[in-house]
Amino acid sequence: MFDLHQVSYQVGRKPLLHEVSLQAQCGRLLALIGPNGAGKSTLLRVLSGDLTPGSGTVQFEGRPLADIPAATLARRRAVLTQQHSLSLAFRVQELVLMGRYPYFQGQPTAHDQAVVRQALAAVGLSHLAQRSYPTLSGGEQQRAQLARVLAQVWEAEAGFLLLDEPLTGLDLNHQHHTLDIARALTRRGFGVVAVLHDLNLAAQYADELLLLHQGRAVASGTPAEVLTPAHIQQAFGIEVELLAHPRLDTPLLVPLPRPAAPVEYFSL
Amino acid sequence: MPALAQRPAASPATASPPPTTAADLRQRLLLPVLALLLVGAVLLSAGAGAMPIPVGGVLGILLHKLDLTTALAFEPQQEAVLWAIRLPRVCLGVLIGAALGVAGAAMQGLFRNPLADPGLIGVSAGASLAAVTTIVLEATLLGVVREWLGFYALAVAAFLGACGTTMLVYQLSKENGRSVVGTMLLAGIAINSLAGALTGLLTYTATDEQLRSITFWGLGSLGGASWPTVLSVLPLLAVPIVLLPRLGKSLNLLALGEEQASHLGLPVTHLKRQLIGLATLAVGTSVAVAGTIGFLGLVVPHLVRLVAGPDHRTVLPGAALGGALVLTLADMLARTVVAPAELPIGILTALLGTPVFLWILLREKRQRGV
């Protein structure tokens, strides 16, 4: 499990995170929520080891994260980043196979090939395995990258997935499908930390939420504890009403209509 | 998602090998085909020249040197020419072509830009500056050095110049102990133009005779080849030619982005140092013995990717074989088209390389549907 204690991170004199603590446990889906610029991605990059916090401690399985060899870490936790810069014309199956690179020297084994096929099937991209990655649509590219990330920790025990806005560019069906995958993995003992923007999806799928605002943790706990109109007002500056979900035992947020802003407000 | 809810079995019993596609086939066949073509080109090139030797004769002489008697006929004169003149030159061409090709592919992988070239990080400009300095100042300042190193003074200076500029560019691009690739590219451009200006300044002060040396050196030539040259560059070129293709998997991961690669366990900083060091060794050594041979490092990896796709596990060895093949053929042309005179090989590679490169650009533009 990941254990962050009083982590602060700043760029120059601008604090991006201020004394944030969190525990991401196996078998749980933790969603990081908050407005743009609240520090969600920064927090995720601290978890992935890309950023070293200025103060505070980051531990994975009881050891300081920085002390764990990269190769060991690569077989336990995989990271889906927000931006992808792959421009070379790799085929989709070649991309997904890269998730298996930590496992083989030279040529991939039959098992590696099988994992690639299963990961592609899991995200529903089997039919595009031979397609060139740059020719895919934005949502398909996102799912191909997810398949690569899944392949990396496919048979890990108590593996971890760190997902930065995994739903960007996905249609309604695939948004739910992606979170279904994340939840299925938590049933298998995985820990998942995901940055999510859709609060209702977060409420429906996450076991725990951490609400960030201006680099500070405003609230954490179960969806019912965190998603209160007062917290939303504080972090997003928007009034919401809490409804009961018609089928599920989770809160459903509906933004309240605001008085229309005068036209001059938007004109330059 | 029931399939994911349980830990998958160690290896699925139903695993059947994936179907082989045309792309797979091209990827698999490229290296053997290039190797065969290279052997053919070497035999052909070794036979071509003022005293033509048929391929059978070349084979006969080579086997004779290995103490094997064959029915393949040749004359003693042919043996002397082949062994003393042609073969060292062909070997040098193969080594330098392979080094330039694989170094170009490695740099394109490092910069994640298909237009990158070892020249971009200042290797060639630094080597040229050092070489021109040696030529122009040899009579005065560097006379002592020249006495020590004799014939090799130029080569040693060019090599040191290449290493020096690369180190400088690398240091300039460092932020928080990590070199930033974008900054490195910009620093390379700056250092390139500075070295160009200094080279120009020295050229301006050069005598007529020195100008001739500078020009010829800059155009590139394999003319100085002899067995001692080949043996002295062999270890320096063999290291990058053998080691760079082993970084194919790492370069594939780097194509995902530096952060994404490090998430997959790749030691990115270490890899970057390795790539830059090996590419500098390859290009610096090549420039030192053969002058600047342009376009090879840029065009050959492109052609390989065009045929076999972007997987660096194929592109790196493919670029080495392809570079060797192209330079061997270019050198054969350079020696024969205006015989008994000889064209500088740099002119030929640029003359042939430019249209090919433009063709690639136009083709890619069409494919994007622009």
Describe the structure.
Chain B: Belongs to the binding-protein-dependent transport system permease family. FecCD subfamily. Chain B: Pfam families: FecCD. Chain B: The chain crosses the membrane at residues 33-63, 83-107, 119-145, 151-172, 184-205, 225-244, 275-300, 343-362. Chain B: Residues 1-20 are annotated as: Disordered. Chain B: Keywords: Cell membrane, Membrane, Transmembrane, Transmembrane helix, Transport. Chain A: Keywords: ATP-binding, Nucleotide-binding, Translocase, Transport. The complex is a heterodimer of chains A (268) and B (370). Chain A has 268 residues and is of the alpha/beta class. Chain A is 31% helix and 26% strand. Chain A has nine helices and twelve strands. Chain A has helices spanning 40-47, 70-74, 92-98, 110-122, 138-152, 172-187, 199-205, 223-226, 229-236; strands at 2-11, 14-24, 29-33, 55-60, 63-64, 77-80, 160-164, 191-195, 208-213, 216-221, 240-244, 251-255. In chain A, the strands form three sheets. A six-stranded mixed β-sheet of chain A has the order 6-7-8-3-9-10, sandwiched between helices. In chain A, strand 7 (160-164), helix 6 and strand 8 form a beta-alpha-beta unit. In chain A, helix 4 crosses helix 5. Chain A is globular and about 60 Å long. By secondary structure, chain B is an all-alpha fold. Chain B has one domain (103-365): Orthogonal Bundle (ABC transporter involved in vitamin B12 uptake, BtuC). Chain B contains 16 helices and two strands. Chain B has helices at residues 2-5, 22-47, 55-65, 76-110, 123-137, 143-149, 153-172, 181-205, 208-219, 227-243, 248-254, 258-263, 268-290, 296-308, 312-336, 345-367, and strands at 174-175, 178-179. A two-stranded antiparallel ribbon of chain B has the order 1-2. In chain B, helix 5 packs parallel to helix 13 (268-290). The longest helix of chain B is centred in the N-terminal third of the chain and has 35 residues, at 76-110. The two termini of chain B are 41 Å apart. Residues 11-15 of chain B have low confidence and may be disordered. The A-B interface holds A 48-50, 70-75, 78-79, 81, 83-91, 93-94, 98-99, 101-102, 110-111, 113-115, 117-118, 121-122, 129-130, 152, 154-155, 157, 180-181, 183-185, 187-189 and B 1-8, 10-12, 15, 17-18, 21, 23, 112, 114, 249, 252-253, 255-257, 259-260, 262-267, 305, 309-311.
